[in-house]
Amino acid sequence: MPRRRPYDRFAVDALIAQRDGVVRSSELRRLGMGASTITNRCRAGGPWQRLLPGIILVSNGSATLSQQIRAALLYGGGGALLTGGAALRRRGVRQMLDGQQLHILIPHRRHRVSTGFVVVERTTRLPNHRNVEGVPCAPIARAAIDATRRSRSVSDVRAAISEVVQRNLCSVADLGLEIRDAQIRGTALPRRVLREVSEGARSVAEAEVRDFVLRAGLPAAKWNHDVFTVDGQWLACTDAIWEEYGVVLEVDSLEWHLSPASYRKTQARHRRLTAAGLLVVHVTPGTVRSNPSAFIAELSATLATAARRMAPAIIVRTSGAA
Fold it and tell me: How much is the pTM?
């Protein structure tokens, strides 16, 4: 009976512990473990399993997300980066994109194929990475564009881009530069949403409402502009304002104004605006979605009423302008 090939058990155990149970089969072989031993342990019902080509999980249970990420990066090889939705989630972005798949970037000269739970993208634009909890991740702007260009849902794309901008994780300019250099395929939705954000719609709710307003053929509004009294007192940064009519539209969404405390501030803002003579229309995203005709009718009636009076004296500036 042939003797089993000896291997360095101490070194193998140390490698397994260091890598959270995820190792390359080539590394095990270099430490003296025979290919047949690895194959036998990875058979159905065995103690190990193959997560990806050449990547072993030293367990027969379900891999954790952390183990899947480690496996994906080992499969990608040196210089591989996590990007897309998984990279955003490691930064605390709530919006779910990419489903259960992990998106990695690898140098263009290396040949790997997408398989299992991993989407592999070869790129000549491999960005400088930042380690997030020990995982090399693409910059926020790159991860956001990589995630959104693989999505078919405009709502999901709006949510992801709105969140990273609202939380100051990256700027509109950063996203613009990234999408300028990205491959054209799949960028129609993120380009559309980025135009919305550039024109003032800073949340999913505002972007949806803006779509309805534009389609209704109403006069053009200014989105996310600061409003002042003529003596320079700041009143609010309004969601939308028709300056020549003295009409303000406020999109009331607890989710996208982030907290109940923020929502209470909208009430104080309403009082300041009405005290300055502005007519304020409040709407929730749910109302617009369920009964858009009623919303447009109310807004149209308010604009018509405002047109019959003298507009209040106010100053409107782009948000953040001196």
Answer: 0.68
